Amino acid sequence: MKREIKTTNDGSKTLFINELNENYHSHHGALQEAEHVFIKNGLNLINHYEINILELGFGTGLNVLVTINEYLKTDKSHVINYFTLEKYPINESEINDLAYYDLFDNPEFKNIYQKIHLADWEKSTEIIKGFNLKKIQCDFFDLKNIDLPAINLVYYDCFGARVQPDLWEKPLFEMVSDKMAVNGLLTTYSSKGSVRRILQDLNFQVEKKQGPPGKREMINAVKL
């Protein structure tokens, strides 16, 4: 599918798929959406020495980058193992044009950004000390066949239900739940009532949170 670069309202870029009429991120702001949904209402709520994160899906790599940015603000006395699934990786030209490292003050971020995208698929790579990344090229529904440690935090960042409704139905959420530790947190930009009911059926405690700019609500769900 053909993709093009677009600039969102906070100055950060995203990819737009013409065929689906769908952005990879909110047009209100790619960076602020990632930081609000997955950092403020995700990573910052987890307090473990070793944090296993599962992301659906890798996309442009922005969620990895904002997670590393937040990790670098800590004393780095803990470890993050980040597992991310993606069926259709972006290409080198798109990686260069997105240039997400320009969004951060840290001069090391250009090198970090390149390491994220150059990391071999299917292999764990230490991007910086204490932060390990494993990119897995697969369909999300292959998740049940993937060997993972118990997941503490899920970034549920699939394309919207308008274009891929099957990604917001019970079978995939059930696979994700099976990979999660008790008290693990799932965070997503979605606030669909059907998603809340599915998660409750799967024994999650579901909470509606204030959404990122341009969206009234989002969901946090803790596995009981």
Automatic annotation (TrEMBL):
It comes from the Bacteria. GO terms for molecular function: oxidoreductase activity, acting on the CH-NH group of donors; tRNA (5-methylaminomethyl-2-thiouridylate)(34)-methyltransferase activity. Residues 136-223 form the MnmC-like methyltransferase domain. PANTHER family: MNMC-LIKE METHYLTRANSFERASE DOMAIN-CONTAINING PROTEIN, SLL0983 PROTEIN. This is tRNA (5-methylaminomethyl-2-thiouridine)(34)-methyltransferase MnmD. It comes from Chryseobacterium endophyticum. The gene is mnmD.
